Structure formats: structure tokens, C-alpha cells
Amino acid sequence: MACVLEAPLRMSVLSEVTASSRHYVDRLFDLDPQKVLQGVIDMKNAVIGNNKQKANLIVLGAVPSLKVSTRKEFSCWRSSGIVKWKGLMNGGNWLLYLLQQETSSTELRTECAVVLGSLAMGTENNVKSLLDCHIIPALLQGLLSPDLKFIEACLRCLRTIFISPVTPEDLLYTDATVISHLMALLSRSRYTQEYICQIFSHCCKLQHWHSCGFKSLPQPLLCANGPDHQTILFNHGAVQNIAHLLVSTSYKVRMQALKCFSVLAFENPQVSMTLVNVSVDGELLPQIFVKMLQRDKPIEMQLTSAKCLTSMCRAGAIRTDDSCIVLKTLPCLVRMCSKERLLEERVEGAETLAYLIETDVELQRIASITDHLIVMLADYFKYPSSVSAITDIKRLDHDLKHAHELRQAAFKLYASLGANDEDIRKKIIETENMMDRIVNGLSESSIKVRLAAVRCLHSLSRSVQQLRTSFQDHAVWKPLMKVLQNAPNEILVVASSTLCNLLLEFSPSKEPILESGAIELLCSLTQSENLALRVNGIWALMFLSFRIWRFKRNRRSNQTSYEV
User: Fold this and answer.
1) Which of 107, 209, 234, 253 is deepest in the core (most CB within 10 A)?
2) Using one digit for the tens of pLDDT, what is the confidence trace for 479-503?
3) Three-class SS of 519-549
4) Number of neighbours of residue 5 by Cβ within 10 angstroms
5) 134: alpha, beta or left, given left = phi > 0 and alpha = psi -120 to 50?
6) Rounded distance, CA 293 to CA 308, Å?
């Protein structure tokens, strides 16, 4: 149970915190440069690696929305007697001021960058406050310094800010000269290599409509004018500048370079075709990626290498029957789905495998018989486990956090596995409680899980046999009609496609669907602004009209015979 401080005690603690904070801030205004430097160093030691202290001190004092740009403004605010810890953050404005002053020593500017980076590691609100202070232009300006330590400190802070979900990626691309300068800094040290590659991998988003690995579900990652991030980085020589980092002696550098290539190659034929022909120390990049798939490599490296090869394969740069895909990448991704792996790794492995095999029948067949994958995926639905609920609260919280992601990943992979082969669909449906899990998935609170469940149902609905048996036994059409009543367009598109299959002539579900008011629903779909919904509505009405025409024709025939 949370402990609430009584008012006198709380005020006592707040006064102590305020005095401590004022002590740090006061020293920033000392006329002695050495005392200012020592003040910044002491501030660094107070905040680095102590998130609990940061959080406590921020909670104890209201966070003022203050922009400080001059000594006079800061002094006026300080004299009000309310110097709070997060004030240090927007005393971060004063740190920014010191960081940008040419009269400040390089050591002082470096320490200021370190403190700002530590504050950015605290919470998302910290990052928002720093962004409001225009920290990114200040740090980018710092990269022009000749001092390597200062450059590394600025890059480290930039890395921390850009990996935050609240930071817009476009901020990296506002100045056309920034990317060129970052490419030039790659050769300075292993730290510049690590930080810059990490910045690139987090700030590389697709602008065009893409499918997130599923061609029937286009979703925009980024909507903006001008070239997308992949194109910008590619045109600035990212492939050539980063390729040699894959053989760096530093594991962190190799990993960040690998992650950079995984986002650069995603659904990008131009980058993928280029990667196939690039060699480092006499070895082609695909061969280097395959070496990184070996079991003795860290799991993170295996997964990321598999993602690179998957993207290159889906882009057409590597054939689907190439040994590096069939014998290396696919088995590696199946291994990632086993219960021995961490939940996060199982999610990423399943989703990447679903993307790899989505459009290739032979890969689907190979995957379905590899390490009992279909049965293995059933375990994804067993979280959180009852044991963790009783014995380990932290484990329960961890399981709950990933439970939705696991179900989503399992549904996605089942959808890809059953996309074409009737025998595979039969194996999936015969898996323990599979149809019940899909039906339950259609009413999940998570939109992503619902979408994945509908996709899985759509994939299985291509089976004539299953439409006549399992789909009828579980009355799948009922929850599907509920989904169609109120859902986002991305779900409606797949749900309406599934409904079209359930309305085919040989489906026993068509009669109850028709009686439940499907015609009115389908007519409303034909009026939608979404093209895919209009097409699906028209197809479904066509199937129904054919059924009605057959019914009327037979009726007329019977009447004629009777009259004769």
C-alpha cells in the first residue's frame, strides 16, 4: 500500500529537497568558472543512475512550465523561493545556455551535455520539457565542435532523446546538412558509431503506405511531404558508411549497425538490392548476416539478422528457396518461438516469421512441420500463468504486459501459415481450443489482437471443409457480425472479406447471416469512403443476389411443374 506523507512531514521533506536544489542552482551562477564546473559535476552525480530520487523530488514539487533563456530571467524565478527539482530540468535551460556559450570551457560544456542526457533518461515528461527548450538544435550545434569527448556527450544525449517515443523523428531531418555531418562523424570513435547508428535506426520510418508485413492491411507509418527517411539515409551513403561496422570489434557497434540495416531494408527493394551486392572484407553482407544467425551468437543478434534477411527476401533481393532463407533464417525464427525464449523474443520471432512466409506456399509448408510450430504457438495463449499469479507479482505484471502481444503474434503467424494450404488449416483448427480462442480474440479489448484474430479467421475461412464444419459448429458468424457493427476501418476491411467467404454458396452460415440483417449492413459498406470496404460490400451483395436468384428460379420451376 502506498504511504502518504502527513502534511508537516511532507513540507519538511520538500524544504530539504528545495534547499538541496537551490544549492546546486546557486553554484551555476558563481563568478568562479571552477565552482560552476564543480556545481555541474555535483549535479551530475546527484541525478545519474538514481531514478528513484529523480521521481521523488519531481513529485514533491509541482513542475513549473518555465522557459529560461537569460541569467536575469532565471534569477527572478530563483528569487521567488520555489526552486524545485524539475526546476533543474528547466534550469536545464541554464545548462543549455552554458552548453552553447563559446566562453564556457569544453569540460563544462561536456558535463552540461551529460547532465542533460541523464535528465532525459528520467521520464517522458522530462524529454518533453527538454524538447520545449529546443535542446536538439543546441546539441546538433555542439557536434560542430572539434573536441571528441564533447561530441560524444552530445550524441549520447541526442540518442537518449531520439529513442523516446515522444520525440518526433522528423526533427533529425529539418536541416539537410545534419545527416551528412553525422555520416562524417561515424569514423571518429566507436561511441560515435554506436550512437549515430542507434539514432538512425530509431529515426528511420516509412513515409509510403505499407503493410507491416501483411499486404491486405496497409497502414501509414509516416505521412509527410518529400522523400521518406529510408531514401534520405540511403542517398547520403548510409549503406556504404555503415556496412563496415558489421565487423567492428565492439559488439554494441555491430548490433546498432545491424538494427540500422533491418529498418533500412524493410519493404525497400532499392536498399535490399544494394545490400546483396555489398561486401566487407571480401564477404557479402548476406553471408555476414547468416553468420550472425548462428546459435552461439546472442539472441538479439540472431533475431535482428533474421529480420534483415527477411526484409531482403520479401523485397525480392533473395529468393525464397535460397538456402540462407530455408535452412538458416526460417529455422532461426522458429527457434525464437519456443518456450525457452523470453516473451519479447517469442513475440518478435513469431511476427517476423509471419512476415517471411506470408506470400510463399513452400515456406508455409516448411514452417508448419518445423519443430512442431503449430502446437508450439498454442502456448502463446497461456499467459499469464496461474503459477506466476500466486508466487511472483513481478512475473505476473510481466506476463500481463506481454499477454496481448503474444496472442497478437500467434494469430498473425497462424494466419500466414494457413494462407494457402488446406492441410495446414486443418492442423491449425484441430489445435487445442483453437476456434474458441479465435472467437474470444474477436472481442478482445486490444484492437491489435482483434485485428490479428480477424486475419486468422479470414485465412482459415478460405477452406471449404472448415466453412462447412468448424465454422458452423462454433457459429463464427455471430461474433463476426458483432465486429462489423462497430470497429475501425482496418478491422472492418478484413472482417468484411471474411464475411464474403461465409456468404459463398457452399457455406451453411449464409442463411443465418442473411436473416440477421446482413443486407442493410452490406449496403452501408458500399457507401463507405474506404475503397476496400466498398469493394467487399459489393462482392458480398453479389454473392447474396446470386443466392436469391437461384432461390427464385427454383421456386418458379417448382410452381410450373405443379401447375402442369
Assistant:
1) 253
2) 999 998 888 999 999 999 998 888 8
3) HHHHHHHCCCCCHHHHHHHHHHHHHHHHHHH
4) 12
5) left
6) 11
